[in-house]
Design brief:
Two copies of one chain form a homodimer. The first copy, chain A, is of the alpha+beta class and 461 residues long. Helices cover 35% and strands 21% of the residues of chain A. Chain A has 14 helices and 18 strands. In chain A, β4 (107-109) and β5 form a beta hairpin. Chain A is elongated.
Chain lengths: 461, 461
Amino acid sequence: MSLSYDEYLLSNRDTHLADLKTFLSFPSISALSEHKPDVKRCAEFVASHLTEIGFEHATLMPTAGNPVVYADWLHADGAPTVLVYGHYDVQPVDPLPLWKSPPFEPEIRENRIYARGATDDKGQVFMHFKAFEALFKTNGTLPVNVKFCIEGEEEIGCLHLPDFLAENREKLRADVLMISDSSILGPNQPAICYGLRGLAGLEIHVRTANTDLHSGMFGGGVPNANHALAQILASLHTPDQRVTVEGFYDKVEALTPEERDSYEKLEIDPEDIMKSLDMTALVGEPSYTYLERVWTRPTLEINGMYGGFQGEGTKTVIPCEAHAKITCRLVPNQDPREIQRLVARHVEKCAPDGAQVEVELADAGRPYVTPFEHPAIQLAAKAYEDAYGVPCAFTRMGGSIPIVEDFDKLLRIPVVMMGFGLPDENLHAPNEHFSLENFDKGIRTLCWYYLGLPNALSNPS
Amino acid sequence: MSLSYDEYLLSNRDTHLADLKTFLSFPSISALSEHKPDVKRCAEFVASHLTEIGFEHATLMPTAGNPVVYADWLHADGAPTVLVYGHYDVQPVDPLPLWKSPPFEPEIRENRIYARGATDDKGQVFMHFKAFEALFKTNGTLPVNVKFCIEGEEEIGCLHLPDFLAENREKLRADVLMISDSSILGPNQPAICYGLRGLAGLEIHVRTANTDLHSGMFGGGVPNANHALAQILASLHTPDQRVTVEGFYDKVEALTPEERDSYEKLEIDPEDIMKSLDMTALVGEPSYTYLERVWTRPTLEINGMYGGFQGEGTKTVIPCEAHAKITCRLVPNQDPREIQRLVARHVEKCAPDGAQVEVELADAGRPYVTPFEHPAIQLAAKAYEDAYGVPCAFTRMGGSIPIVEDFDKLLRIPVVMMGFGLPDENLHAPNEHFSLENFDKGIRTLCWYYLGLPNALSNPS
């Protein structure tokens, strides 16, 4: 072997950054229709760049919206196949005056590259391009088979990706799904996220009469929709915020001791959270730590509630309707449809006399976890450790990434979320940027990972 | 005595109705500044009409807003003094297209007079004019001393009357306050209202953090303002809607057996209320009838509550603030300020961990009751019975009339609310009208009452 990937990356860094700048200079804002041509030109750049590197079949596959860029390299006989997901579209840039350099004229300051899309997600997608390029250039081949699926509608909710995936299920078949569209915990604290909570939404509509009533004339003798709703909502939690819905926790998987150990190392000081958010107390399920509560425990949150008069001053009305919006965060193995049913049953059961309650089911997304001990996950952690020189943290995310659920449902393969962003890189905000330290380390992490993957997957732990 | 008041009223009915039409034709809409001149002209009409009848000192007394028409006749030596309150201003008329005849061109159809202000309150005020006129014409004198206080801002909340009353307390001093600005129970069911509930308002503001939070990132670990508020609000009532606030009922006067008997005769069929309002249940304090609940029992109503997301669809937010607006209806001898303090203490005491609660005090109005057995009340009932030929009902109103409280506070005299409207006469709505049957009977009721008043008040029961 003439050249290591490390040496190759070092000696070609300037070219790579120049290419990244080109990628970042397309104003591929999917939310704004006037940028439709820019979105297309950006997709074309991705396809041609992938061809340039050595990938085959690079095409803009049409969807009902923006095209998906597909490319592959499938000549690693007997080796596993990796599907790399990412997106080339970006968020809008307003308020523009707050940007120190124009969002589509990438500028490097203090070893960070500033541009819309730098960290979300062009910069991270581009690292995979360069990792594979380095492996091609230094080995003449890749250790794994590779398929790219780089979409153009992530910032508008992946509108057409689920259909695209369903239609191209065979074409996209792989052994591992790789996503780099998230953050590590800090500049020197790499982390691999192996789980996301799911979502189950509902709306509660309470009606008590066919009209609002005057509290002077009727007060004391008729039901009040606000009273009924408050009673229903208050019945959903114990004082320490455990959900009281019957069966809610029945299918929740217990954490393994390894997971709890791993979180314990990361545990955040509650005082810090309280101080930064001006809170007088943190609340949550007893016998779980803060991180366990927000990453691994299911929740039920009243996102909105309203009934009656909200204007200035006093209005002596007995409201005849009141409403609440609720979402539950779910963890394995909770089923969103089942949880919706359980919550609906609870609400209907505890509706007080005179309250006519309607429960409307809303969003539903499955929780996702790639088993902690899966070799694709454990290898990712080792890859980080090799590049960063410190042990990698194992995390889950409290939020949902619906697209992960879509992939999981269709392909049933482990999902490796190796992010390289930092939490404060202003994604979706002015002055978005990406640390070039993580860009450099990240490409090496990926090279190390891809090189190790065939062996890891062939030796089940 | 040459002529009875009854004969006089009969033979002058056409002239009286013509005068009433003139009174009703002034568009004295206090809410609309373009009608300021009409309001003034209407006040001038009232003053000159009172002079014509035989009253003295008729003047437009200025306030910071519309003038109060004052007039008196104080020559009944040794007899009690009656202060007659009413208002010459009216509500706006929109939506105009729904009126069958123009609102300021009074028209008589089926023995009802249609015009804005017909029942609220010009028609009822005018009955006092005609009652006194009839007594003047038939007796040459009045049995009581009389003071008129007819204001022009009732429909905009009696903006300047409290100041006016405070400044003219001595001038307005009287033994009985007479108000005809309400309804009887039905065409042949006269009623005397002797009590009004008071009001105590508060707003609750709950804060849990300095910003809304993402339920994916923070859910399960931090307080939610909606949860806290729902818990507080649900704690305010027992399931059967008794108020749980400590001390809330401590000063509530028990009903007398006579009062309960009197209400029992009027008791409404709960099925009728439920049917007309599409309710599945009536709720209220056990061991009180419907009318007792809405007339004589204190209440606490959540008039409004809101927190978090109210838009379409789902937003996975943990709201950092939530708000509620509350009013209590009060009965003798509850003190609004004390009730506000009790509720505030309850709210603060039961605020859950992490909830920073602020209670803001709002409107406060004292409950008012002229003792049921007061001769001025009992006489009013007899006057109705004489004119209508059926026993009079004794009622209270669940609502508040702040002006009654103002009069009561300043003058400390019994308030006699003798209304002659009907519940369905469209006050504040298109096609407002006033039954001429009640107009005719009402004037006779008032004549009978005023003639009997000196004797009733001189013989304490």
